[in-house]
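Lecture 7 notes: from sequence to structure.
We start with the chain below.
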Amino acid sequence: MSSDDNTVSTGARWSVYLAGEIHSDWRQQIDAGVRGAGLPVDLTGPVTDHPLSDDAGTMIMGAEPDPFWHDRKGAGLNAIRTRNLLKRADIVVVRFAGKYREWNAAFDAGQAVAMGTPLVVIHDDDLRHALKEVDAQAMAVVREPGQVVEILRYVIEGSLG
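Predicted C-alpha coordinates for the same chain:
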Protein backbone atom coordinates (compact mmCIF):
# COMPACT_ATOMS: atom_id res chain seq x y z
CA MET A 1 0.00 0.00 0.00
CA SER A 2 1.46 3.33 -0.92
CA SER A 3 1.48 6.15 1.58
CA ASP A 4 -0.61 8.45 -0.60
CA ASP A 5 -3.59 6.19 -1.24
CA ASN A 6 -5.62 3.33 0.21
CA THR A 7 -5.12 0.85 -2.60
CA VAL A 8 -3.87 -2.56 -1.61
CA SER A 9 -1.99 -3.92 -4.59
CA THR A 10 -1.14 -7.51 -3.80
CA GLY A 11 -1.79 -8.69 -7.32
CA ALA A 12 -3.90 -11.46 -5.82
CA ARG A 13 -7.35 -12.32 -7.04
CA TRP A 14 -10.21 -12.53 -4.57
CA SER A 15 -12.54 -15.51 -4.51
CA VAL A 16 -16.16 -14.62 -3.76
CA TYR A 17 -18.70 -17.41 -3.27
CA LEU A 18 -22.27 -16.45 -4.21
CA ALA A 19 -24.73 -18.61 -2.27
CA GLY A 20 -28.48 -18.62 -2.03
CA GLU A 21 -31.46 -17.89 -4.20
CA ILE A 22 -31.21 -19.26 -7.77
CA HIS A 23 -34.32 -17.85 -9.45
CA SER A 24 -33.24 -14.28 -10.28
CA ASP A 25 -30.30 -12.63 -12.03
CA TRP A 26 -28.55 -11.27 -8.92
CA ARG A 27 -25.41 -13.29 -9.67
CA GLN A 28 -25.25 -11.90 -13.19
CA GLN A 29 -25.66 -8.37 -11.82
CA ILE A 30 -22.72 -8.85 -9.47
CA ASP A 31 -20.65 -10.44 -12.25
CA ALA A 32 -21.34 -7.52 -14.61
CA GLY A 33 -20.54 -5.00 -11.87
CA VAL A 34 -17.28 -6.72 -10.92
CA ARG A 35 -16.18 -6.91 -14.57
CA GLY A 36 -17.26 -3.33 -15.21
CA ALA A 37 -15.23 -2.13 -12.23
CA GLY A 38 -12.22 -4.20 -13.31
CA LEU A 39 -11.99 -5.85 -9.91
CA PRO A 40 -9.67 -8.87 -9.46
CA VAL A 41 -12.50 -11.17 -8.38
CA ASP A 42 -13.35 -14.75 -9.27
CA LEU A 43 -16.99 -15.57 -8.59
CA THR A 44 -17.96 -19.10 -7.62
CA GLY A 45 -21.13 -20.70 -6.37
CA PRO A 46 -23.37 -23.73 -6.36
CA VAL A 47 -24.69 -25.45 -9.46
CA THR A 48 -27.71 -23.26 -10.24
CA ASP A 49 -29.30 -25.66 -12.73
CA HIS A 50 -31.88 -27.02 -10.28
CA PRO A 51 -32.66 -30.34 -12.03
CA LEU A 52 -28.94 -31.03 -12.56
CA SER A 53 -28.18 -30.25 -8.92
CA ASP A 54 -30.99 -32.53 -7.74
CA ASP A 55 -30.20 -35.42 -10.08
CA ALA A 56 -26.39 -35.41 -10.43
CA GLY A 57 -25.94 -38.09 -7.79
CA THR A 58 -28.24 -40.60 -9.43
CA MET A 59 -27.04 -39.66 -12.91
CA ILE A 60 -23.50 -40.62 -11.87
CA MET A 61 -24.01 -43.32 -9.21
CA GLY A 62 -27.24 -44.94 -10.35
CA ALA A 63 -30.96 -44.55 -9.90
CA GLU A 64 -32.61 -44.74 -6.50
CA PRO A 65 -36.26 -45.72 -6.08
CA ASP A 66 -36.37 -44.22 -2.58
CA PRO A 67 -36.56 -40.38 -2.79
CA PHE A 68 -34.47 -40.07 0.39
CA TRP A 69 -31.50 -41.84 -1.20
CA HIS A 70 -32.02 -40.03 -4.50
CA ASP A 71 -31.74 -36.70 -2.67
CA ARG A 72 -28.90 -37.97 -0.47
CA LYS A 73 -26.72 -38.85 -3.47
CA GLY A 74 -27.18 -35.42 -5.02
CA ALA A 75 -26.70 -33.62 -1.71
CA GLY A 76 -23.43 -35.45 -1.13
CA LEU A 77 -21.99 -34.35 -4.47
CA ASN A 78 -23.21 -30.79 -3.98
CA ALA A 79 -21.62 -30.75 -0.51
CA ILE A 80 -18.23 -31.67 -1.99
CA ARG A 81 -18.43 -28.70 -4.34
CA THR A 82 -19.83 -26.27 -1.78
CA ARG A 83 -17.46 -27.18 1.03
CA ASN A 84 -14.38 -26.82 -1.17
CA LEU A 85 -15.46 -23.53 -2.73
CA LEU A 86 -16.43 -22.11 0.67
CA LYS A 87 -13.00 -23.06 2.06
CA ARG A 88 -11.31 -21.18 -0.79
CA ALA A 89 -13.53 -18.10 -0.56
CA ASP A 90 -12.25 -14.77 0.71
CA ILE A 91 -15.83 -13.53 1.07
CA VAL A 92 -19.18 -15.34 1.03
CA VAL A 93 -22.25 -13.49 -0.23
CA VAL A 94 -25.63 -15.07 0.56
CA ARG A 95 -28.87 -13.91 -1.06
CA PHE A 96 -32.21 -14.64 0.58
CA ALA A 97 -35.28 -13.95 -1.55
CA GLY A 98 -38.00 -15.17 0.78
CA LYS A 99 -40.21 -16.70 -1.88
CA TYR A 100 -38.55 -20.10 -1.49
CA ARG A 101 -37.40 -22.07 1.52
CA GLU A 102 -33.71 -21.31 1.56
CA TRP A 103 -32.23 -23.77 4.01
CA ASN A 104 -29.16 -24.22 1.81
CA ALA A 105 -28.50 -20.49 1.92
CA ALA A 106 -28.76 -20.41 5.70
CA PHE A 107 -26.51 -23.44 5.98
CA ASP A 108 -23.89 -21.85 3.68
CA ALA A 109 -24.01 -18.65 5.76
CA GLY A 110 -23.46 -20.68 8.92
CA GLN A 111 -20.54 -22.56 7.39
CA ALA A 112 -18.91 -19.29 6.31
CA VAL A 113 -19.23 -17.87 9.82
CA ALA A 114 -17.91 -21.10 11.37
CA MET A 115 -14.87 -20.94 9.06
CA GLY A 116 -14.27 -17.30 9.89
CA THR A 117 -14.95 -16.18 6.32
CA PRO A 118 -16.44 -12.69 6.01
CA LEU A 119 -20.16 -12.88 5.25
CA VAL A 120 -22.25 -10.39 3.27
CA VAL A 121 -26.02 -10.96 3.24
CA ILE A 122 -28.50 -9.65 0.67
CA HIS A 123 -32.23 -9.56 1.36
CA ASP A 124 -35.25 -7.32 1.18
CA ASP A 125 -36.41 -5.44 4.26
CA ASP A 126 -39.41 -7.72 4.72
CA LEU A 127 -36.99 -10.51 5.77
CA ARG A 128 -35.23 -8.35 8.37
CA HIS A 129 -36.89 -9.98 11.36
CA ALA A 130 -36.72 -13.56 10.05
CA LEU A 131 -32.99 -13.20 9.31
CA LYS A 132 -31.96 -11.18 12.35
CA GLU A 133 -29.62 -13.90 13.66
CA VAL A 134 -28.00 -14.38 10.26
CA ASP A 135 -27.68 -10.60 9.84
CA ALA A 136 -26.05 -10.34 13.27
CA GLN A 137 -23.25 -12.63 12.06
CA ALA A 138 -22.73 -10.82 8.75
CA MET A 139 -20.14 -8.10 8.30
CA ALA A 140 -22.52 -6.31 5.94
CA VAL A 141 -26.23 -6.57 5.12
CA VAL A 142 -27.45 -5.00 1.88
CA ARG A 143 -30.57 -4.90 -0.26
CA GLU A 144 -29.15 -4.81 -3.81
CA PRO A 145 -26.46 -6.70 -5.79
CA GLY A 146 -24.88 -3.38 -6.77
CA GLN A 147 -24.10 -2.73 -3.12
CA VAL A 148 -22.08 -5.96 -3.06
CA VAL A 149 -19.99 -4.66 -5.97
CA GLU A 150 -19.35 -1.43 -4.05
CA ILE A 151 -18.35 -3.42 -0.97
CA LEU A 152 -15.90 -5.42 -3.07
CA ARG A 153 -14.48 -2.24 -4.61
CA TYR A 154 -13.99 -0.75 -1.15
CA VAL A 155 -12.40 -3.79 0.52
CA ILE A 156 -10.14 -4.56 -2.46
CA GLU A 157 -9.19 -1.07 -3.64
CA GLY A 158 -9.97 1.09 -0.62
CA SER A 159 -12.07 3.37 -2.80
CA LEU A 160 -15.68 4.13 -3.58
CA GLY A 161 -17.20 4.09 -7.05
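Points to note: The chain is about 50% helix and 15% strand. The radius of gyration is 17 Å.
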